[in-house]
Design brief:
about 500 residues; alpha/beta; Nucleotidyltransferase, domain 5; Rossmann fold; six-stranded mixed beta sheet; 15 helices; 23 strands; disordered C terminus
């Protein structure tokens, strides 16, 4: 029996294989045009590394950010909405909450980036009476068919249906779904009584609209992945990690993708908690630093925190789905350092991704990234990156930082590289305090557990910045060719040690 865990990130796709021969690790560049290509390639390659046949793989557990990226990049489907007459503008009005109470200049995401354009929100006649759910006004089926005619004319193939009080009686929504399926064959249809069958019309409408917004692309990716797994001759069951830390089937996630909006980050928190329990640690702060983002969570007393679904927001939109309490920010190895028009120095949230990637990857990237800064400072072995599978070019990193940061600021390349690291570390430290101190937790009582591709490079500095009690890490050889970072072995008080020196000291001791 063999099991494989796959996590698709913005820069790399990471794999872990567990079988009777041991545990093996592998990493391949993500393929942004079709993420399933990298997944299949990685699965086949890690089977070769472990020396097992692909037919021995029984389960593939998959963490994905495909739905998350759609919300961040605002490139989901064009959605049509059918709702109760008189409630067409619920998605625009929201709860009348101001993102910043005392600012005259702020963005209202549910208005500036609506999940459903106003012209595509069509009201129809129907009414269910609370609190019993009895039908007061029957559904006007002809109006639903007329709405479908408009959607067809506009080329809309994703429709959400949200009626008032459908959580008491969903017969109108189910009937409207049948009509839409008849009028627009192959349409992706979401109804609020199935996606979020609870009171509160704005949150319910927003959730079903989000499901329709991310649904077509997410479903296409998941079903395409399942098809390619079968075509590759891999008989494994394919399961997807959900935002609450559980797992679900491909079909379940394709129907309700709002449940996997935080799939990838949730998998990291679950893994960190499992390692902490093995080590007997109950209070940990996790920081999963990848190529594009950093995902931060605080675990107190060895128990996960689940957000209240009524307060869960994704990219500024209310989403009533259970999610692990974590914060995501644009900070990772691929985060780009840049100067604004006034000369201000920033790192992220833009990322070089895997194509073209950091300058040192020699894939055509010219923007200086956090990874380039690590290479310039000598913290990454250019000849041994990924066990030598991806040799890095320090000259390109030096040139990118010099041209874009050092020369315009009148400082040396080394100073610019150190500045990049300090800025991104302080950005992450602020977010970690927001997830801990602002919620009543004292970091001095917690151990910091950094992981992910870039976690070890920032862990010690972050532990010092947030005054964590201890720093936990695990370095172990996942295969004869490479070192892989996981979590925890070394429990050491770091409050009086300098970050770069101490990082090297840990590494030397564990590799000796």
């Amino acid at each position: 029996m063999a099991r494989i865990g796959v996590d698709v990130g913005g820069t790399n796709t990471d794999l872990v294989l567990e079988c009777d021969r041991g545990i093996f690790f592998h990493k391949v560049p993500s393929t942004t045009r079709d993420q399933s290509i990298a997944v299949i390639r990685g699965v086949l390659e890690i089977c070769d590394i472990a020396g097992i046949a692909k037919e021995e793989v029984e389960v593939i557990a998959h963490g994905t950010t495909v739905a998350t990226n759609i919300t961040i990049e605002h490139n989901g489907a064009e959605v049509g909405m059918i709702t109760t007459r008189g409630f067409r503008d619920i998605l625009h009005i929201g709860r009348h909450k101001r993102p910043h109470n005392f600012s005259l200049h702020f963005d209202v995401p549910w208005q500036s980036h609506p999940l459903v354009k106003r012209r595509n929100r069509i009201a129809v006649t129907e009414r269910v009476r609370p609190p019993t759910g009895e039908i007061e006004t029957p559904l006007d089926e002809q109006e639903v068919r007329d709405a479908c005619a408009i959607f067809r004319k506009r080329g809309i193939t994703s429709v959400c249906i949200g009626f008032m009080f459908s959580f008491l009686n969903d017969s109108h929504e189910r009937r409207a779904r049948e009509i839409v399926a008849e009028e627009i064959p192959g349409c992706y249809i979401s109804i609020s009584s199935e996606v979020a069958n609870v009171i509160r019309e704005y949150e319910r409408f927003s959730t079903v609209a989000m499901n329709a917004f991310v649904g077509p692309k997410s479903a296409l990716y998941l079903r395409n992945l399942e098809s390619k797994v079968r075509e590759a001759g891999i008989p494994a069951k394919l399961r997807v990690i959900q935002s609450n830390g559980g797992i679900s089937t491909i079909e379940g996630c394709a129907r309700k993708p709002v449940g996997i909006l935080m799939s990838g980050p949730a998998g990291g928190v679950i893994g960190a908690l499992a390692e902490a329990r093995l080590a007997g640690v109950t209070n940990i702060m996790t920081n999963d630093i990848g190529g594009t983002s950093a995902d931060i969570s605080t675990i107190a007393g060895g128990k996960l925190r689940i957000k209240n679904p009524r307060d869960t927001v994704v990219s500024g939109h209310a989403v009533m789905a259970p999610m692990i309490d974590l914060e995501t920010m644009g900070a990772g190895g691929g985060s780009i350092a840049w100067l604004d028009s006034a000369g201000g120095f920033h790192v992220g949230p833009r990322s070089a991704g895997s194509e073209p990637g950091p300058a040192c990857y020699n894939r055509g990237g010219t923007e200086p990234t956090v990874t380039d800064a690590q290479v310039v400072l000598g913290r990454m072995d250019a000849d041994k990156f990924l066990g030598g599978d991806l040799p890095l070019d320090p000259g390109l990193s030096h040139e990118a930082i010099k041209e874009k940061i050092a020369d315009p600021m009148g400082i040396s390349v080394t100073e610019a590289a150190l500045g990049i690291i300090r800025v991104v570390n302080n950005n992450m430290a602020l977010k970690m305090r927001a997830n801990s101190v602002a919620r009543g937790y004292d970091p001095r009582e917690f151990s910091l557990m950094p992981f992910g591709g870039a976690g070890p490079f920032h862990g010690v500095a972050l532990a010092e910045l947030v005054s964590a009690r201890t720093f936990w890490c695990r370095w172990r050889r996942g295969s004869p060719r490479r070192w892989v970072f996981s979590a925890p072995i070394c429990n050491t008080n770091i409050s009086s040690r300098s970050s770069p020196t101490f990082t090297v000291r840990i590494r030397r001791r564990l590799t000796a």
